[in-house]
# Entry
Amino acid sequence: MRAVLYTCLFLTCSLFASSGYAQEVKITGTVRDTSNTVPLKNAVVMAIRLTDSVLVSYTRTAADGSFSIPRTPVDTFQVIIQYPGYGDREYLVVASQNNREFDFGNIIMPLKSNDMKEVVIYGYKEAIYFKGDTIIYTADSFKVKENANVEDLLKKLPGVEVARDGSIKSRGKAVAQVLIDGDEFFGTDPTMATKNLYAESIESVQIYDKPDESIGAGSSETITVMDLKLKENAKKGYFGKVSGGTDFSKFYETEAIANRFNNKQKISVFGLATNTPKATVSADDAQKYGVESDNFSVIEGEEDITYYTQNHNPNGYPVTNRFGFYYNDKPTEKSKLNANYSYKENRLRVDNATSSQYFLPDTSYTTDNN
# Structure
């Protein structure tokens, strides 16, 4: 009986030695908190095989934060360390017969991060500040009513005055030009920008003086310029005007003007059809919308007053058809592109009636000519 017992014990030991656990990978380390001073007890340490994501082995850390993953075969796997309140630590282990011991030393656990849906960052700007000789108003610092236009905004700016006719003064000096992002809007009338653009589309209002180019180079005379800087989402839009009238019998009058802008690109289209003396776009609309009118001349009067006079006033029954377009673009800071086309058809029917009466000694007669 004793001999048999010894034999069985020997066989059991042999089977255990040949089962493959002698080829285990040794993975050790110590898990600590973010400061690397406090050991973390009961942190979970897992070994997951990389080829099929099977959990090969796992353990928990001791009171001193140390661990040793048991029964880990020679393979390629991922070691994941987790502890409540901290982010995960992950390691890639590529083991072989000649490389079976891995000591990670002190493992410092990172703070746990939370994904946020949205982060809004607010930047603060002074409501009014100077940049060189330019005074800058931050538009959003001045509250206006909903759907207010730029003219309503300008009335809120300290030092800026807006008259009933739309003319603007800054610190008592007349504003000669109103620009949009450094360039003229449609036409030279400043009210085209101040009355047709929404206040909420303006990022800032910049006012400065520059040499008066109309006098000539080297002149010391200056003019005041207002430059409206648009927000990025407001640098395109359109506006226009449509009007018409008829007596539903003989006379009619129709007119349409449309303008579109996209950053530096501007397009204007106009059309006119009438059989009344209105043969072209009015002087006021030509100045406002930047289109062409050929029946008036401009006379610069005293005290910066401009007079518009009609060049001709046809008599009779006219028929006028006009249309055209204007294109303006600024591809680069040093280049400009302009193009325009217009068509005009004028017809005029004039009726004259003459009646003459003659008195002679013995008779009299009347002659009618049409």
User: Anything to note?
Assistant: The first strand starts at residue 25 and ends at 32. The CA atoms of residues 141 and 359 lie 86 Å apart. Confidence is low (pLDDT under 50) at residues 1-21, 296-312. The helical segments are 2-17, 150-154, 191-196, 283-289.
